[in-house]
Amino acid sequence: YTCHASNPLGSATYVVDINEQGPPTAPRNITFTLTCDHLTVAWAPPEFDGGLPLVRYALEINDTSQWSDSVFVGMTTNRFTFTSKDGLKPRTLYTVYVQAFNKFKKGEKGQSSVISAYCPPRINVEESTKQTELYSYVGNPTAVIIKCVWWGYPNLTLSIRKNDIDLPSGDVEVQEPTGKDMFGNLTATVITDGDEDFGTYTCHASNPLGSATYVVDINEQGPPTTPRNITFNLTCDHLTVAWMPPEFDGGLPLARYSVEINDTSQWSYSVFVNATKNRFTFTS
After folding, report:
1. pLDDT value of position 21
2. Quick one: three-class SS letters along the chain?
3. What average pLDDT score do residues 191-195 get?
């Protein structure tokens, strides 16, 4: 559209184009950041948004075995991470597609390919025994279970030792990864029949890229420490005592508290209260 203006001294024009809105062009500069179990893809916005603001991006990843995954992310985002939990495998050729959308149109796909990384052993803390200080007692019929879950590729080898001696194979269940699976599991069952069963247990994982350990201690259970911060609330015929739990429960859940009161005339009174309580009131 051309605007025209003229007078006796001359003329001028001003041009405005009205174009049909269309699809965005492809996102640009697709790059990757790799770790053994993460693949982060980043990109720059398309040069042209199709004449409308962008509303979202679509990401798709696939490999040569026809595995694929896809996700939508907001238009304010310019990166996304695929992980082993999504199915990512080590030393695999992946192709990633990034596509922009505006209100009415889906745009061209940008694409790039990358080979994922090798993986030295690394403990998966969320899936392993989280408490590294465990407690039991001599003659406990319930076994103590130590679980170590590892990431690693290739050739992940797992074991568990006490005092640098491998535990008997009958007490250990190992699931080493196969193919390009990068998760390995080791579960040890420890019966505390005697003092020799208490101590430090070390999970070991190794492959050609390195080794790692994860340490769990099995301690003998004992008495709780003293309840803390004993305070009083007084009225003319009431004395309420309150306290905080001990810092250490001896390795077993607390079962009850004993509260005893006495005076200088050798009068005394005592009561047991449930471990869920933290106060008791003596009255006239």
Report:
1. 86
2. CEEEEEECCEEEEEECCCCCCCCCCCCEEEEEEECCCEEEEEEECCCCCCCCCEEEEEEEEEECCCCEEEEEEECCCCEEEEEHHHCCCCCCEEEEEEEEEECCCEEEEEEEEEECCCEEEEECCCCCCCCCEEEECCCCCCCEEEEEEEEEECCCEEEEEECCEECCHHHEEEECCCCCCCEEEEEEEECCCCHHHCEEEEEEEEECCEEEEEEEEEEECCCCCCCEEEEEEECCCEEEEEEECCCCCCCCCCCEEEEEEECCCCCEEEEEEECCCCEEEEEC
3. 93
